[in-house]
Amino acid sequence: MSPFFIYSFLIMAAGATExxxxxxxxxxxxxxxxxxxxQIVEDTVIPYWQFLLWLAAMHILSVLDILLYLTKFIFVxxxxxxxxxxxxxxxxxxxxxxxxIKTKPGAYIGEIVEKxxxxxxxxRHHITILEAQNKIEVYKDGGKMRYFENNFTYDEEEKK
Length: 160
Prior knowledge:
The chain is mostly helical. The chain is built from 6 helices and 3 strands, in the order αααβααββα.
């Protein structure tokens, strides 16, 4: 069912009927019939316009939620992946690559591939994510790219 149909049905149903509640003859107000505890509940009346305003807000929020979901889906189709700072090292391969770069500053891809045992494409993928999350930094040395932990301990001379 579409939200518009439900919304219009609720508007029509709200004004269609009227109920009148009256106590049964002979009953006293607030007295139990079968011995149960009786609690008097305050009657709160919400104006009809507030209900409609709440309903419209929920409808708008649901449409925004659907649009955000579709946006995430488009990014997945295009090949983007979400990796935030909290979970960037949760991947065991990425964590081992990062640990290797920490222990061997100035490592290059061929060395990492050989020592870690992953394929070159996988290592490039994980290095790209580590670089995007500022965990490592890249230094170009001639034709090779050398990788260092991004903790600002190495100056340009040490990187060479």
